[in-house]
Design brief:
Layout lengths: L1 H13 L11 H12 L7 E9 L6 E6 L7 E7 L2 E6 L6 H5 L12 H14 L3 E2 L1 E9 L2 E9 L5 E8 L5 E7 L25 E2 L26 H5 L11
Parallel strand pairs: 5-10
Antiparallel strand pairs: 1-2, 1-6, 2-3, 3-4, 6-7, 7-8, 8-9
Length: about 240
Amino acid sequence: MRILTRSLLILAVAAPGVLQAAPVGAYEALISVGRQKGNAYLDSLVEMRAVEGAPQPEVWTVLFRDAAARGGMREFVVTAKGIASERTPLRADDALLVAPTIPHAQLKLDSKGAFAEANKLATQAKLGFDSVSYRLHSANGAPVWTLRLLDTGRREVGSLALSAQTSAVISPLAKGSGPAPTAAASADDRPIGERWTEGGGLVGHMTRWSERTWDATTNTAGNVGRSVETFFVGKPTNAPVKRD
């Protein structure tokens, strides 16, 4: 027992990333709910939220309208392993109670594709950031991704909104109140994850992935234009997007 404990301690110190939870995309989170509740249940989706995406989060909070639930709403907390918890809030936000639901067939842009577009725009604007918070909701009857770009102190340095149906930019990237990138310290003098990426974009974490930055300009992860339905029917999901 003592040897096992010592081995686990050595593993945790030597390879901290090994024991970290795996990131999970929005589509995968919806699939987990669909497997338990049925695909038809996904049409009662009201909102998805996640924080500290780097680039994808480890946990999603997913809210559905459910007439059988007390308060009329049911909330799931989902990780890469599936549904971690489920609850029925006694009192939901009034705005959420009357918010339109999002039929899953309308979802054509995954959180991975939303990040790719945000990172491309941030790179063009030379805006560095450390993590992303995600919110999927309905606006004017259509699904919308709202992304907030945060620095290492969790201060907002930028935000934008994208159509989850067409991938079009609804609200252009707007710089937030966080500090602007600075060259006061050499990039090599600070650890990855605590410095701005030259040229903007997401700053990589060595314990989360091996590359310094996610090059969204050339790698959109095949998620723009993908429908969540393709995950259920098993069709290829890496087809390029046709743009006018």
